[in-house]
Amino acid sequence: MSFNLRSATRVALSPFSRIRSLEERIGIGFFAFALLVAMTHGLLAHDYRAGEIEIDHPWSRAVPDGARVAGGYVKLVNHGSEADRLVAATGEIAGRTEIHEMTINAQGVMMMRPIDGLEIPAGGEVALEPGGYHIMFLDLTGTRTPGETFKGSLTFEKAGTIEVEFAVEAMGGGSGHGGHGNHGHGNHGN
Predict the structure, then answer these.
(1) Residue 9, in any domain of the structure
(2) Residues 79 and 98 in one domain
(3) Residue whose C-alpha is closest to residue 189's, from 90, 66, 69
(4) Which of 16, 27, 119, 130 is the most buried (most CB within 10 A)?
(5) For a pLDDT cut of 90, what percent of the chain falls above it?
(6) What is the largest CA-CA distance in the chain?
(7) Which residues fall within 8 angstroms of residue 24, CB to CB, at 6 or more apart?
(8) pLDDT tens for residues 168-177?
């Protein structure tokens, strides 16, 4: 009786080969999943960058059909060593767009006025949010429902213009993007 060492080795390694193959398959599957997550992260993050300015999650509150105005909100972070200014904005749903400030005067009356720009300090941030600074979409040419988006742009004095998409979120509630929704300021369309 002859003994073949190569055959014995193949038989002995065969169960480990299958395990290794299964491990490789799991590894390839995990790698493919990680690659998919990495490729779609930018889509889910909803962040943009213009020069030293980071634009975090542009969004707008849904408004009822027939509404003439809607508000736009975003957080702007300046990573630079010089201040910059948001000087203009656009939204494809609006005939015109302005940057606004909302305040409450000494008598408790809410006042809203357009401003010619908004400074983002060096190394600082400014939040455009309900009840404060915001983008005002005027003369609406259409509306969107929660979960939809619309194109727009933000123009900075130094960083230039960057195209963005505003995510539409439900009135009175957020869609899970950092708790944006109703911040106790009512639904005034801003």
Answers:
(1) yes
(2) yes
(3) 69
(4) 130
(5) 62
(6) 107
(7) none
(8) 999 765 434 4
Structure tokens at 139: 């003369």
- Residue 83: both structure tokens together: 């201040």
52 and 40 within one domain: no
Pair (61, 138) in one structural domain: yes
CA–CA separation, 95 vs 56, rounded Å?
A: 24
Alpha-carbon gap, residue 51 to 86, rounded angstroms: 13
Domain that holds residue 15: 1-45
Is 83 domain-assigned?
yes
| 79 and 147 assigned to the same domain | yes
In a domain, 182, yes or no: no
**13-63 pLDDT, tens per residue?**
555 555 566 666 665 555 544 444 444 434 444 799 989 999 999 999 999
Element (H, E) at 120: strand 118-120
Bigger pLDDT: 177 vs 113: 113
Q: What is the number of domains present in the chain?
A: 2
